[in-house]
Amino acid sequence: MYTVLRNMFQKMIVMSTVAVAAALAIVALPAAAQTPTYRAPRTADGKPDLNGIWQALNEANYDIEAHVARAALALRPGPYGPVPAAPVLALGAVGSVPPGVGVVDGELPYKPEALAKKKQNQQNWLTLDPEIKCYLPGVPRATYMPYPFQILQSASAMVIVYEYAGAVRNIFFKDPGPPPVDSWMGQSVGHWEGDTLVVDVKGFNDSSWFDRAGNYHSDALHVVERYTRTSPDVISYEATIDDPQVFTRSWKMSMPLYRRQEKNAQLLDFKCPEFVEELLYGQWRKKPLSREATEPRPTEPRP
Questions:
Q1: Distance between CA 35 and CA 29 in Å, rounded?
Q2: Distance, CA of 259 to CA of 49 (rounded, Å)
Q3: 84: closest CA among 98, 73, 94?
Q4: pLDDT value of residue 198
Q5: CA gap 144, 64 in Å, rounded
Q6: How far apart are CA 118 and CA 114, in angstroms?
Q7: Helix, strand, or coil here: 56?
Q8: What is the rounded (10 degree) CA torsion for 41, 47, 52, 56?
Q9: What confidence score (pLDDT) does residue 180 get?
Q10: How far is 259 from 39, CA to CA, in rounded Å?
Q11: How far is CA 188 from CA 5, 80, 169, 184, in A?
Q12: pLDDT beyond 60 at 294
């Protein structure tokens, strides 16, 4: 009798364990598989509302590829490895490069001759990077520079305003035809694919870079951006890059964009052209100022 009861008890335990495991599987799997897709608030015309002040939070402006930390963007050979170049030496840690996981998958597919130019750009960053001269950043770089930008959206128009250099993009929803002239920011034509805003950008000049690491493009650049609201305060951003003069194939970058949370969030003036006037035009002063980097010296007291 004892043996019979024991066997029955063991069977009940096994059956209970199986039942609990099955119940957990039934509960857990649908919960993961049936997570409701976020539905963004709508504008008057029923499209997802992208209005707001947004900003990327990453190191892509330093280098869109994965990279380790280094002492400076401008380097020179040192006795035991690269050290900061003389013009940036005084910046110390402020001039260093933080590490980043990258916003692209793997290495960029440069053509061999284009890769050589990229390396030349990187070696001469201090004189060649257009950001240093406060030129317009281009697309997609404007999106992930360390400054906020604002999307202004209505039923008939959309404008993206960037804090950096006062850059502005009009998103046309009716194709105006070929860009009349090549420009820093290109010509943007948008349409909706479900809840995703797709922006086709063409008509670039060849003067902007993707980052401070010398990654560049030609005037054949074609960018297709995708903006998708994935939560109340996040936009999923993707940009597909095609430039047959520089790359062997198209490639993609992706990152989240975060809504600025401050109660008084707003774009402030950062019109940097006036900050580089001395750099660009100082040599044409009647009495040019010295451009030699000198060590600060203590001020001698007056007699």
A1: 10
A2: 13
A3: 73
A4: 98
A5: 10
A6: 6
A7: strand
A8: 100
A9: 93
A10: 16
A11: 78, 48, 7, 12
A12: no
Residue 220 carries which side chain, given as an amino acid letter?
Answer: A
pLDDT given for residue 24 in this prediction:
47
Distances (CA, A) of 58 to 61, 64, 269, 274: 8, 9, 22, 27
Cα(191)–Cα(171) distance, integer angstroms: 9
**How far from chain centre, in Å, is Cα 26?**
40
Tokens, residue 246 = 């520089």
List alpha helices for the chain, DSSP H.
2-33, 112-123, 125-128, 141-144, 277-281
**pLDDT score of 13 more than 60:** no
Write down the pLDDT at residue 291.
Answer: 78
Range from 14-18, 135-139, 214-218 carrying the lowest mean pLDDT = 14-18
Q: What is the pLDDT of residue 35?
A: 57
Contact 164, 192 (CB under 8 A): no
CA neighbor of 256 nearest in space, from 274, 233, 272: 233
Q: Can you give the pLDDT at residue 155? A: 84
Q: What is the DSSP string of 234-266?
A: EEEEEEEEE-TTTBSS-EEEEEEEEE---TT--
DSSP 83: E
Place of tokens 């039942």: 19
Q: Which two tokens stand for residue 135?
A: 């030129």
Q: Which residue has the tokens 């040019």?
A: 288
Q: Which residues contact 194 (CB under 8 A, 6 or more apart)?
A: none
